[in-house]
Structure formats: C-alpha cells, structure tokens
UniProtKB/TrEMBL annotation, chains A, D:
The gene is paaC. It comes from Maritimibacter harenae. Gene3D superfamilies: 1.20.1260.10. Transmembrane segments: none annotated. One of its GO terms (cellular component) is cytosol. GO terms for biological process: phenylacetate catabolic process. NCBIfam families: PA_CoA_Oxy3. This is Phenylacetate-CoA oxygenase subunit PaaC. InterPro entries: Aromatic_CoA_ox/epox, Ferritin-like, Ferritin-like_SF, PaaA_PaaC, PaaC. It comes from the Bacteria.
Length: 255, 311, 311, 255
C-alpha cells in the first residue's frame, strides 16, 4: 500500500527510530527522577540513544540517496513514516514502568548490536561495534534496577510487576519478522529478530525470576506493527508535536 | 579565644579549612546555607532548561542540552557532598528545600519560553554564575573550594554553548533575531539580580568576606558582568533593554539601571507564582520517587544480610 | 407458557415492549448486554476522537469535533438510561466495563494516528455504526428503540462531517491525499469487522432476530456497507485496500475480502495492547473522579437534610 | 521593547487568547471527566469559549488590517505574541483545580462582558451581548460545583482548598491595569480591569465563604504579565506544540 522502499533504508529507520523515540522518552525524566544518581544515569542512557540515532539515521539518509540528513529524517516525517516498535512510544508511567521498558529493550538492543558487529555491511558493523558497548552498560544498569525493585519492598515489587504486565505484550513486537527482516538477514546485514528471541527469553526470564517477578501470558494482538508503520499508539503523534515543533514552526533555519 | 584566632589566621594565610579542623559555628552555618542553596540551585536549575530538551531543534542541540543538564545534576552532587562534610545529609537539605526553609537562586523562577531562552540562560545566567563562582575557587573551605574548581571548568563550557546558540539566532532569520532579542529583554534584569542586592542592603556580607566565604562584593561582580556582557551583545547585534546604559570613561565601566528590587524580593519570597511550578516539580519527583529509594534500599539490605550470613 | 407466547405475539406484531411489561429473562439479559455494550462503545469511542481535539487544524474543525464527541457522551447517557429501565444501574455497568466483564466495540482499539483518521472514523466507523443502528430504531424494546431514533438523527450528521474532512484531504495537497489514503488503508478492515463475524459463526443471532433485538444479519449489513462505501471512495479518488474487490453483476453487489478474523478475536479479547490505553483512560477517569462524585453527593445530602429540617 | 501595536488590537487579543487557551485546556478533559454529565458540561464550556475566540480574533484581524484570519492568529503565533493571563495556561490538575480556575475566570469574564455590552465600539458590544449570556451560565455551573465540593466531604474540601491556594495569586493578574487598558477604558471601549475588582471580590469571596473555603494571602509577584507578553508560564509553549501542530507541519492547506 505504501511505496516499497529499499529494505536497507527501512531497516536503518527501524534502528534509528527505536533509539530516537526511546531516547526522547527517557530524556523526559530530566530533573524529575527519584534520586539524583538516577537523573544522571537516565540522562546518560538518553544521550547514548540519541548518539546511536544520529549514526543510524545519517546512514539511512545516505542509503536513501535523496540528500536527507539525520535531522531531516528525525524532524520532518509524520507519524506514519516512523518505524519504531510501540514499546518505545509508551508514556514513561512511573519509574518502574520506565526502567522495565528500558530493560526489555536494552537486552534486545544488545543482542541485536552484538550480532550486527559481523554484518556484511561494514558501516553497520562499525556503528554496532560502538553502540554494543553502550548497550551492554545499559543492560547492566537496567537489569540491576529491575532486580532491586522486584526484590525490594512489597510496594516496589507490586509496581514493577504491574509494569511488566503492561509491557510484556509490547515487547513481543520486537520479534515480529517481515520481508524486510528476511531480506536483511539473508544478506547477512542485520539478524532476523526471531533468531534473537530464544537468547532474549532466556536472559530476560532469568533476570525476572531473580527479581521474583512473574512473566504474564500475553501476546501482541495486532497484525500491523510499528516496524512497517501499519500500527502505532496514539502517543507517537504527541511525541512528534514536541520533538518537531521548532523545525516545523521555523522551517529551513540554522540552529 | 585561641581556637578562633588560629582559625582566622589560617584563613588569612589562605590555608584551606578542612572538615576535621575546628571552625566557628557561624562559619559552619553560613557555609551550609550557602553551599546548600548553591546545590539546590543546580537541581532546580535543571528544570527551565530541561523544559526544552524534548523540543530542541536538532539532534546535536538536543545532545548538548541534555549533557549540560546532566552536568548540573553532577554539580548538585559535588555540592551536596561538600555540604555533607559539615554534618548535614543530602536528604535533610532536600527536605529543607521542599519545605521552603532553604532557598534556590530566584533566577530559576523565570520561565524559558522560547528556544532563544536556552541560549540566553547559557550566555547570561551561566555567565553571571561563573562570575560568582570563579572567585569561590579560592574560598577558605577546602571541600567547597575543590567542588568549585571542578564546576567552573564545566560552566565556562556551558556559557560558550549558550552564546553559540544566541549567535546562530542573532545571525539567523528575522524571526530568530526577534526571538533572540526577546530572550535578552526578559533575561537581562533577572541576570543582574543574580548578584544579590546592592552591598549597602546585603546582610552577612562583611563577616562572610572576612571568612573568605565571599570574595567580592555584589556590586563589584555585577559591574564586571555588565562590562563583559555589553560588548558581547553588541557583537550579536542585540540591544540591552536599558536606555540608560552608557560607558562611563571615568570609572572605566558602564553605567546601568538597577533591576526592580521589589520584584526580586517578591519572587525570592515565593510570591511570584512561577516558583510554585518549580517546587511542585521537585516535590513530585521526591514524593513519587520514595518507593524507588525505599525499594532499592531494602534490596541492598537483603543482599548485605545474605552476604554476611554466607560468611 | 402463555406469558411467553403473548410476549412473542406482541413482538411479532411490532408492538413495543415497555419496562413494566413481562419479558423473558433471556430477552432482558441479552438487551442489557447489547445496550450496555453500545453505551460503553459511545463512551470509549470518545477517546480516539478526543485524542485530536487539541490538535484540530482550525477553530471551526475543533468546534465541530468537540461537539461531536460531546454528542457521543450524550448518546452514552441515552443508552445507559435505556439499560437502567431493565434494572441495572449506570455505575454497575461502568464497573463491569472497567473490570472487563462487559465489552465495547473493538473498533475503538484502533488508534487515530493522523487528522485524516478523524475523517475516516466519521466516514467509515460512523457509517458502519449507522448501518447497524438504523434498523434498530424498529427494535422491539421501547426505550431502546426511542434512544436509537434520537441517536440516528445525530449520527448521520457526524458521518457527513467525517466525509467532508476526507473530501478536503483527498482534494488537497499531495501530503493530505497520502494522509487520507493511509487512513483508509488502516480503517477499512476494522470497519468491516464492526458488523461482527459472519452469521455462520455468530452466536445469539437467531434468537435475537426472533426477539427483534437484531434486525438484519451481520453479512447483510456488511454487504450493504461495502456497496455504499465503494462509490464514495471512488468519488474521493481513494483506493480501497482490497485487491480482490470487484463488482458482482449477478448479486448486484461487490465481492470483497474478509477481514482477518483472528485479529478480530485477538483484539476483542484484549490481546491487542492498544485496549490497555483505552481501559486505563476510563479507569483513571473513574478512580480520579471518585472524590468529586462523593463530594457532590455529600453536599446534595446536606442541602436536602437542611431543607427537611427547615420545613 | 516590542513594537507598539494598536491598543484595540492588543485588547482584542487579550480577550481572544484568554478564551482560546482556556477553551483548549477545558477541551483536554473530553472523555476523562469524573462523571458523564461533567464531560458534557465541560465540552459545552469549551465550545462556548472557542466560539468567543473566533469572534474576538476575527475582529482583531480586521482591526489589525493585515488580512489575518482568526485561524491565522490562533495557529501561527509563537508564545511571545500571546496575550492571555497565566491563569488560563495552567495545567488542568485535578478536577477541583480545573473547576476553581474556571470559576475564578468565569466571574471575571461575566463582569467584563456585562460592562462591554455598552461599549462605544458596536461590534464589541454585539459580541459581548452574546457572550455574556454564555458566561452567566458558566458562572452558575462553576460556582455551584465549587460550593458543592467545598461543602462536600473532607477530601473534596481539602482538594478544592488546595486548588484555591494555588490559583488565587494567578487570579490577581486579571486586574493588572496597563496603558492598553487605560486607553480602552478612556475611549469607553473596554472597562478598566481594576474597575471590576471590587465586584469580583465581593462575589467570589461570598461564594468561597459559602463553600467554607479560606481565601489565602497571596499576590501575583512578577512585574511582567501575560497581558503584555512579558511573562508566561512554561506551559503555554507546550499547549502551542499541540494546538498548532497541523498548521505548522502542513502550512497553507485547506482543512
């Protein structure tokens, strides 16, 4: 229904948009975290994700070949052209929901980046090399916090369990595989998400068990996905009104 | 008393006072108030700039701003640590901020309404802050002095970034220029207020200067700030919103209009309604975060206990 | 039984059943389920459209949309009142919605992502709703029938407004056209789902038709909807996202592809994560509003008591 | 510091912007009110306010004489050009804060409109004639609700008292008088806000007493005001990102 575009371009958008939108969400915490050390750590995560965004979207623009910069791609598309999964669009909720979302994504991101280090596309391999280190650090932090809150007080346990219940079905979207994924996997550029699912499940379920949390029975019910733009939550549009405000209100300026 | 005399001699000889050294109660109290207020200002100061992180116009600007606000949180940490060496905890100071018993710089009760305000905050507010802080690197209390040295290094970087934003705006489109001028209009007088009221009306000043907690007078620093900032504004092609501003050859500095000190005291006392937003934001962060702090603490306790049991 | 026979005779003769009349338990139960679900759909249906009120592109469009969502709340009221004549309260039904015991139309588990979606919702979703509702004006239960008459009058107005938005978009700029086509792509199959599964797989259908709670079969209505909508899409210059769509001369209607019924049942059961947002929004409104309802009730009690005392 | 513009244009912006921004805030409740009847009533208030917005801003555009429509003025100005008081920008808070804000504004609006019915500017007199009826109805509703919540349960009393404490200083801004007000008052176009203050105080304090609420000691501390654009809260800019999104992202289109 939408015009077919280069699968590598699509795949790079998915990587870039996940980082962009999650980075945006995390940056919303700035100045509002439960404790100063968390404020600093969350800002750090957001910074890493925005750095990854730049690298992915810059390369996406080059692959597309229409002269669009990373900023053009980030700030001048409407909701339908975004390719991130729904998980990263969700509102921050309480700190438990933020950190659980972060953890579920971080593990996926690290596994994905680790595998991309041997990509047949050397540019992707280079970016993955750098980003995988950051992602490993993110997992370390978010996993520790999830375990701490799960195995903390009664209230912290209840809250982080609630967060898991809400987020678990969204996390399943990370492993939906479509033609773009298949083509990229076949060419050895980016792994098929399904190929990461077992490792993800093993690691995540292990940590959640340590956190004394129960994994809910729930799956992603919609057929369309944020990955192909056929589905998003209503939250994405609201993110864009903020994120793109200046570029939209004052088009074509230098900042 | 000999202790007091010995203490003052060390101060006069520029020997740093360290946490274990004897110090007068007043010195300690004044330091706690001053360092605490400074720390709170770093924390509350995250809010007006944080307000634009989600709206920054490019990925690069977003990262620079985020890193800057992160630095401020870091400065808050250094300063709380310095204050803690005087026997007060970070949580106690936080409670005092939230209950209104401790203040923060009233500059942060002015809102950031446009992107140019982010430039103006960096250029003017950080500029004024540095003017205050540079001399404090030589303050008599060791931990405070060392914190200021680290902070000053980063602050001057922030000011340059702010000026860079203003430059882009002032040399940009008509709308951007207008935005930049509007930001200068709104932040000029509040920046002048940052040095505090004229020395004639300033309490504590004399004793603080003897203790080298305060190095320069408010008016000295304000004059220095104006003299530094006016040519920068000229270079940007922006107009300082003060019709009385004039170079005074004789004193080798500018004559300028005083800010509205009634507003200053009003806003400082919290009468200005904007401070409600700031304190509410901090209160909400603190209250909403209680379960997280408690949860992580409880987990750490459990781990410690099981480790001890295993030993 | 004579009562049951008498009841059915009245239904067959198109005489309305009124609240005080005898009726079978199954009839009452089915009606409560159906009217309640319809009422809940009006209430939850406020959310996807309400999502764009603050972003409507002109003052006029904003007012039209606001008025429309207000109408939906009104429809909810009519329907809750109709259901209440069957001996269940609005609060009970609300609790059942929030606990997941009662459903709402699963179309509202599809998000409105662009302004064109507001057009598509009016054109397709209200269009399908009317197709369902028009025959229900002749339903056997009096209060339900009267509510449907009032509702249908307003719904057709809403559908025209939706089509008008689509027209503006489809005849607008390239970007607007693309937005309109994208909205049609996303809302086409969910709209077809609104008539429910094929009659072959539909429970309750036969009895409901005998009771005149249901007037047409799901497939009849779906066919009618497609036949009405295809030429409208053509007029707009938009493409229905169904490559198998074709006029069938013989049956005098279009052949078309079935929606993905697995998705339908998934989403209906709440497996689709979007319904979490909807129920959370309604739960929050209900929970956060408890103190308001209690406060106003307490005040009314006090006033009543003091009035009684004064008499 | 900003270029002087026609005082009647400025005055009309103040009227229009107050209605626009408050209407926007109230419309945010749509679908989220504590009870269905309130949902309908709030939507009604928002609709009236947006209707008033159209009339004021359309006339403002005519007075300005640059061919700007009401929509151009509403959707294409940045924060600094808005002339509403800070009170109407504030977030909705809980329902108590929303209804208290509404009440404090409604009484001012009704008094202002009543006085404008005899404006020397017949267009303003006409608009005021229509709008005053709506405002009178708004006061009736919001006053009744404030009294009901104040004299309701312990919790409802506490919450509405909290709302009053937060909002009272902001309400004082309604009565700040500047050159624009003075000029308009002298010409008999729009009353001096100060001239309405006694009536407002008498009425509002009466109702708050009936609601068993205590009026706090607090004033508006800033010298700049939303009325002259020298002050706003940070909330205004966020309202605009939403409100103006489509007009900014797709400039110059028909909707």
């Amino acid at each position: 229904m939408t015009q077919k575009s280069d699968p590598k371009f699509e795949a790079l958008l998915r990587l870039g948009d996940n980082a962009l939108i999650l980075g945006h969400r995390v940056s919303e915490w700035c100045g509002h975290a439960p404790v100063l050390e968390e404020d600093i750590a969350l800002a750090n995560t957001a910074l890493d994700l925005l750095g990854q965004t730049s690298l992915w979207l810059e390369y996406a623009g080059e692959v597309e070949g229409k002269g669009r910069s990373a900023d053009d791609i980030a700030f001048l598309r409407d909701a339908w052209d975004f390719r991130n999964v729904l998980l990263v669009e969700l509102p921050n909720g309480d700190f438990g929901q933020t950190i659980m979302r972060q953890y579920l994504f971080d593990v996926f991101n690290r596994l994905n980046l680790e595998a991309m280090k041997t990509s047949t596309d050397t540019r992707i391999a280079e970016i993955a090399e750098k980003a995988a280190k950051e992602a490993a650090y993110h997992v370390e932090r978010s996993e520790g916090t999830v375990i701490g809150l799960g195995d903390g007080t009664e209230e912290s346990h209840r809250r982080i369990q609630d967060a898991l219940n809400i987020l678990w079905p969204y996390a399943q979207e990370l492993f939906i595989t479509d033609e773009v994924d298949e083509e990229m996997a076949k060419a050895g550029v980016i792994p098929d998400p399904k190929s990461l699912q077992d490792a993800w499940n093993a690691e995540v379920r292990g940590a959640l068990a340590e956190a004394t949390l129960e994994v809910p029975e729930a799956h992603f019910g919609h057929r369309g996905s944020g990955k192909d733009g056929r589905m998003h939550t209503e939250h994405l549009g609201h993110i864009l009104t903020q994120m793109q405000w200046l570029q939209r209100a004052y088009p074509g300026q230098e900042w | 008393e000999p202790e007091e005399r010995h203490f003052q001699e060390k101060v006069d000889a520029d020997i740093r006072i360290e946490p274990r050294d004897w110090m007068p109660e007043g010195y300690k109290k004044t330091l706690i108030r001053q360092i605490g207020q400074h720390a709170h200002s770093e924390i509350v100061g995250q809010l007006p700039e944080g307000n634009w992180i989600t709206r920054a116009p490019t990925l690069e600007r977003k990262m620079i701003l985020l890193a800057k606000v992160q630095d401020e949180a870091g400065h808050g940490l250094y300063l709380y640590c310095a204050a803690e060496t005087l026997g007060i905890s970070r949580d106690e100071m936080t409670e005092m901020l939230l209950s209104g018993k401790m203040k923060y710089s009233s500059i942060f009760n002015y809102p950031t309404l446009t992107w140019a305000d982010i430039g103006a905050v960096g250029w003017l507010v950080d500029g004024a802050a540095i003017m205050n802080q540079v001399p404090l690197q030589r303050t008599s209390y060791g931990p405070y002095s060392r914190a200021m040295i680290r902070i000053c290094k980063e602050e001057s970087f922030h000011q340059r970034q702010g000026y860079d934003i203003m430059m882009k705006m002032a040399k940009g489109s008509e709308a951007q220029k207008r935005m930049a001028q509007d930001a200068l209009n709104r932040f000029w007088y509040p920046s002048l207020m940052m040095f505090g009221p004229s020395d004639a009306n300033s309490v504590h000043s004399e004793q603080s200067m003897a203790w080298k907690i305060k190095i320069n007078t408010n008016d000295e620093l304000r004059q220095k700030f104006v003299d530094q900032t006016v040519p920068q504004a000229e270079y940007l092609g922006l107009t300082i919103p003060d019709e009385t501003l004039k170079w005074n050859e004789e004193k080798g500095g500018y004559d300028f209009a005083e800010p509205d000190w009634d507003e200053f005291f009003d806003v400082l006392k919290g009468a200005g309604p904007v401070n409600n937003d700031r304190l509410e934001a901090r209160r909400k962060a603190w209250d909403d975060g209680a379960w997280v702090r408690e949860g992580l603490l409880a987990h750490a306790e459990k781990k410690r206990a099981s480790k001890v049991a295993a030993e």
